[in-house]
Design brief:
mainly beta, 11 helices, flat, C-type_lectin-like, Attractin like 1, carbohydrate binding
Length: 1341
Amino acid sequence: MEIGGRCKTRLFLFGPKLVSRSDPRGIHKYLVVYALFSFVLLTHASPAKSCDKSCNSGKCINGSCVCERGWVGDQCQHCQGRFKLTEPSGYLTDGPFNYKFKTKCTWLIEANPNAVLRLRFNHFATECSWDHMYVYDGDSVYAPLVAVFSGLIVPETRGNETVPEVETTSGYALLHFFSDAAYNLTGFNILYSINSCPNNCSGHGKCTPGNSAASRVYCECDKYWKGEACDIPYCRNNCGSPDHGYCDLTGEKLCVCNDSWQGPDCSLTVPSTESFWILPSVKPFGTSLARASHKAVVQEKVMWVVGGYTFNYSSFQMILNYNLESGVWNTVPITVGPVPRYGHSLAAFQDDIYMFGGKLEASWGNVTDELWVFNMPSRTWQRRSPVVGSPAQTQVYAVEGHTAHCVQLSSGETIMLVIFGYSPIYSYISNVQEYNLRSKVWLVPETKGAVPQGGYGHSSTFDSSSSSVYVHGGYKALPAGKYGLVDDLYRYDVNTRTWFILRESGFPRYLHSAALLSGTLLVFGGNTHNDTSLSNGAKCFSADFLAYDIACDKWTVLPKPDLHRDVNRFGHSAVVSNGSMYVYGGFSSVLLNDVLVYRPPSCQAFMAEDGCVKAGPGVRCIWSRGRCVPWEPSMANGSFSPVPFLDELCYKFSDCGSCAANTKGCQWCDDKKCISASSNCTTVSVSTGGSKALLIQLVETHNFFFFLLKIFQTEHQCSEGWSQVGDACLRINSSRESYDNAQHYCKNLNGNIASLTTSKQVDFVLEELKKLQQQEKRLSPWVGLRKINVSYWGWEDMSPFTNSSLRWLPGEPSDSGFCAYLEEPQVSGLRANPCTATAHGLICEKATGYSRGSCKKPCSLHTNCANCTSQPMECMWCGSTRRCVDSNAYVISFPYGQCLEWQTAECMAQNCSGLRTCSQCLDQPECGWCGDPSSTGKGLCMEGSYRGPMKRVARQGQQSQTHDMNLEPASCLNDKGFEWAFINCPACQCNGHSTCVNGSVCEQCRNLTTGPHCETCMPGYHGDPTNGGKCQACKCNGHANVCQVLTGKCFCTTKGIKGDQCQLCDSENRYLGNPLRGTCYYNLLIDYQFTFSLIQEDDKHYTAINFMASPEQNLDMSINASNNFNLNITWSVAGTISGEEVPIVSKTNIKDYRDSFSCEKFTFRSNPNITFYVYVSNFSWPIKIQIAFSQHNSIMDLVQFFVTFFSCFLSLLLVAAVVWKIKQTCWASRRREQLMRERQQMASRPFASVAVSLDARGELTEGVPKPVAMEPCFGGKAAVLTVLMRLPSGFSDLPPPGQSGLIVASALVDISQQKPLDFKDKSQALKNRKALPPAHQGTCV
């Protein structure tokens, strides 16, 4: 307080200093301080972290993009959700980049009731036949469907409009986009406008409002332009007035030509040497009668159109007729007859039209075998029941996408030929079915010649002059399980039932049209998209115009129709009348109801022979009797003179008939291979092991020398060139082929490109490739692995690829590759490549013996998603149509995008009521969410629209999904607190377990739930808490803390305990115990070491393991682990009270432990049932544990000692005796050998002669007789002494007659005593106490 009592308040805040009004000069001073302080604060504050990339449909917060509702991606660049647009004009897009996989986006455009909305597709590029944009005239998918866009949509020529402008008149437009898991293209950019003129009057008029407020705007066209969008020119060049014609301005505003002139502008003469197209302006009663996959026939210049596919069958007219001369359409009302269908066949004979087969779209897509006959004069239908003609023919094929013709045979009988088609039971049909119109009998005849490959959506034309049917294109099952479009052309001789293969067009297509005019086959339009990876653009429909010259076996590309707009289409029909071709209907994102007329050049217009012969392309003329007339196939005077082609063009023919019955100049070799006629029939392949005998014989045939390899098999299972590996025969070839040619090569050998699904096959192939590499023959062969069903890699035998024994190289598989080859045998490395590229080598396989695989249930017979998807990569489930289709027939099963979404693995709920959360509900375009009054996220998912829920109305005989739903607002009334959500979910989504704060944040989850939206159970509880569901405690018997959230299966924490509730011991692996009253123990063996590796993903919940051991004496225990653990050891005696365990050791946080337990402390001898329990707990995963128990004695038993001692002593004695016996045996044997040598020596010693004088008998002398000879032996210690002895002579003293009386006697004597002893050094004897060895006996050897 200042003097005078005046107070000055000074209050300091975070900012300027407040002063009283009495000091105005301080205000400026403190403002300056505030500014400086603020500047310092801003410069020193840390700036917000920026994002590396721009956030397209979101905001950058703390370095990452936070997306707006309905957008996802790291840059918020992909749509994924529902949007509502209410501006008078705007645009919608999938995002600035390629759309993502599995995209589902929905846009609702809302305008005033009954307002006209126009959609303009500035850019559209999606994968043809797989990724679709659906446009509905209403606020739900139950509203009328007006367009289905798919593929690449660009103008054919500048100024033409490929994309028709889509118009809705209900005041709403719902657009839904779905993409699968394969290709993601650039997407779309679509402009919309409300109550605007169509296409801004195309720049040829001005947009004018109506006279009243309720009327719509319209275009006032400039002169010479007409149409709603002023896009149709008329009276060009004033119709050549006055000479050629005049312009009629009173009616349709078109040229009226004079009699001698024709053409859109009356510029061509009659007849004319030029061709032209006409687009009449007359349409059949509006867009409701537009259709595709219908059929048409001509009878007396009237075109009859029967059946066909349409978006909405409520106002569908089964039969239409069109007067080709007057251009007038008429509907044919029918009260009783067949239900609508498409993909059927139509054939006319006299006054009857025969309709066979087709798909009943209004009956959940069943393919039928019904035959209906329509009588044109009476306009009545009659159904013909099938009559089987042959016992071998058990039934008629129910097919779709086939063709039929009524033909008269040379025998006079009239039959209806049904060619090819697709059967959901038997897949693609390659047979011809015949129906005899007189006997009404069905027959499937045996055909000759080539072996055709049947399919769906081909075209066929019948030439009556040659009795031949020409069949072109189609969607077919190719070899080795592949499928796609083909450009084949066949000719079928009706009378001989023989097939011929003609030249391919080079432009595969299906659902096109064909007509025969002047000896030329004219092919128009069709779906030409085959493989997204190989096509330059994913264009579904085309306006291609091709001509096949039958006389020359030659294809020509004709100019496309030069009209004021593009006429791309598929699923249309074509008929011929009065020399012109009439094309009706079809599909080009929208269903078409226009008629195109093509008039070819007229042969009569050529006045000179030179011009007549050179006429064309598109017409074939001949000069006959001074005038030019059209050529007919019946004028052909023989077969074609084929020019030999390359071997690659002949490889695809896998049978002798097809190889010979074609125009490519092919020949069939004895080794079952089709090659060019200019090549020799030699077989060259890489030997892969096996010993077989080959006999090569040289044969001369048709001036060609062929080497015929005649194989004499020495193996029963695999033939020459093949090696048996397990249950399959494998063959490696070194040629350079594309994948398709590799398949043809293997098929020619009665095999298939190899699916290496077993480790034995992989090891064999790798070993063979390494052997070849050592021989400097490096191969990178094709294997039977390819991308199946748009995004899944699988083997050709439909086995899934596991990436185990054979693995992808780094960076593989590439997006451009659809087929795989073995690049690096050393590392089992695979690489992906386009199927049209070549690889060095191929591997074929075929089954051993004649075993046949089991027949699987057809996909079409599965009635729910679970059964359908149980066969991986074979069947596909469409939830919107509730149909199961074969994966190789998905495109033809839904050619017009009828399937909103498909599944091959996880199945979605079959209807909206099965979806439990709002996000799941709004993910399906047909569903909406009704939130309950609690505003906690609970509600009910139900079918509905933007205006409210809808209810299905059952109608007798009708089951379609587009016109049987009515609005049912009472199911979710707002006045009772319910909230209907169709675009976005309610902000509060707590599943009924919490209320929200700040509108969307769950305050506190109750009822044992957790998560941002209380969408899951707390740990230790299980259940589905979504939409008010309950959680229950995990029942794990005290052996687990958590369980699987949905199923309640416990994650047991003790190794060895198993079961959904941890109620069992793993007794198969030596775990014993009772987890209901205790735990489980691993029963250890004594004197063994055990290692437990808990390193797998399934082991991550384990935190304990228990052991038990029952020793008989002193015990040593050791345990160690890779991580720290707690250890408890107890013991007990069996038979005591349960649980009575005595603790011994208790350790915590250790890695190893060793201990010994002696019998002094534990009476092992008196208690033989002592058991030790080891509890290892509180360890972390992963871990390795080693544990061992061993036992020993402290005092040795005397009895055991003596037993052991004497056992060892006796064993030694026994060994000594055996050794002595062996020694004696060896000595005896050696002595015998020595004696034998002595005897041999004695027998071989030299002999000497001695003269003996025989005196008269003398007196007997005493003493030793003197020897005649003494022969010393080797060694000088023995000698052989020889003496003469007189034999006794008796009393006569004379020897017996003939004898001398003398004998020679020899003896072995010892002469060692006669030698002086050797001198021995006694000093040496004293030094060496060791006795000298005895002297050896002398020997005579």
